[in-house]
Amino acid sequence: MSKFLVLAAFALTLSVVSPAQKKRVVIMGSSTAAGFGASDTSKAWANLLRDYWGGLGEIDTVINMAIGGLTTYTALPMGYFSPLDPTHSRPSPLPSESVSTALLLNPDVVLVCFASNDIEAGFSKAEYTFNLHVIYNTLIAAGKTCYIASTQPRTEFSPAFQDSLLQVRDSILLEFAPFAMDFYSAVVAPDSLTINPLYAFTDGIHLNDAGHQQLFQIAKNDVILSSTPLALSLTSFTAQREQQGVLLRWTDQDESEPTDFEIQRSATGAGSSFETVQLEKGLGAGQSENYSWTDNDPLPGGSFYRLKIDEQAKESYSQVVSVGSAAKGLSFDKIMTNGSQLMAGVSTQNNQAVILTILDGSGALISRLPCTVSAPYSVVPLSLTGLAAGAYFLKVTAANGYSMTRPFIRL
């Protein structure tokens, strides 16, 4: 082979390999994600985000599938029938919007942004959040990273519908943290459930240029694209409520370079809401190291914690851990699968009876376990014997009817 052909082949290899190192992002959603309200397409939040990432050299491409007027039902997998729609009266998944189509685009990261149309269409809050879980779970099962945007306020809604948007916002932030984007709080009017006039488009539904700028800032802060490998490996990170505060522990391996651990805390778990509360210097001994720090002034009620790891200008984040919520008195800490057993960590403010339920991807009941969890933290084992590999949901329901749902993968 001639030298020219060798170089040509090498150049072709680089053209194939280099883009693969960058992220391919897909955006799913409705009118705001499609850019409605912005005076120019370049000022829509999704395009601002695309241009920002492009300037950093972090993306291969951003593909925006969002279409005005759509709901979460149109984004469900093709051929999927929700158990919450037994009469099949809801909209069917659309080829142009389905998560199945999103997967065909081979994304690394998917942003799911359905702001309010489900509530306008009269769908229940349970349908709204369940559909988001199905979409999220489908993407996670395929090895993709998924971020779920919260609802947004609407001025022209009835008070009841406005309250529903707020409640779904709370559910999304709680159930999808840290992969939730709070698109509500930054644009809502103070002491109101309507759009802040500073950010409102004339129709009372969409956002103007300033509002799109707010959503861009949220997404820029919340969505983490960087995949720079670190020398160290974080092997554990836990949070446990104690009488004097919240005890955080973490362990790493192969810590050979100067390292800083920023302990960050949030009341909601949304990425942009985390604030640094403590800086710990790494020991840098090159072996397995154990660290701990106590938050002696924790937030009232529930708190989320994560570590930002800085290692010679390279950054990464730990998983998010949480302690019990005062608002509901119950929260998931983590879900761990080990062979034929699932271990559910449940934080609670007081001893209480709960029901743990495993559902398949369609919402069908697999198993149900009534049990009592003890304050402040319990680990409950559930058998996975006979359960096929795939994506499932774990739901915990308290005696007062409050419930939380988390996806998990059976390997």
SSE layout and pairing:
Layout: H1 3-20, E1 23-29, H2 31-34, H3 45-56, E2 59-64, H4 99-104, E3 109-113, H5 117-120, H6 125-141, E4 145-149, H7 159-176, E5 180-181, H8 209-222, E6 233-242, E7 245-253, E8 259-266, E9 275-281, E10 289-295, E11 303-311, E12 314-317, E13 321-323, E14 330-338, E15 341-348, E16 352-360, E17 365-373, E18 377-383, E19 390-398, E20 403-410
Parallel strand pairs: 1-2, 1-3, 3-4, 4-5
Antiparallel strand pairs: 6-7, 7-10, 8-9, 8-11, 11-12, 11-13, 14-15, 15-18, 16-17, 16-19, 19-20
Helix pairs in contact: 3-8
Give a description of the structure.
- The chain is globular, with a radius of gyration of 22 Å.
- Helix 3 packs across helix 8.
- The chain is α+β, with helices and mostly antiparallel strands and 411 residues long.
- The chain is 23% helix and 34% strand.
- Strands 2-1-3-4-5 form a five-stranded parallel sheet, sandwiched between helices.
- The chain is built from eight helices and 20 strands.
- It has three domains: 17-222, Rossmann fold (3-Layer(aba) Sandwich), CATH 3.40.50.1110; 233-323, Immunoglobulins (Immunoglobulin-like); 330-410, Sandwich (Immunoglobulin-like).
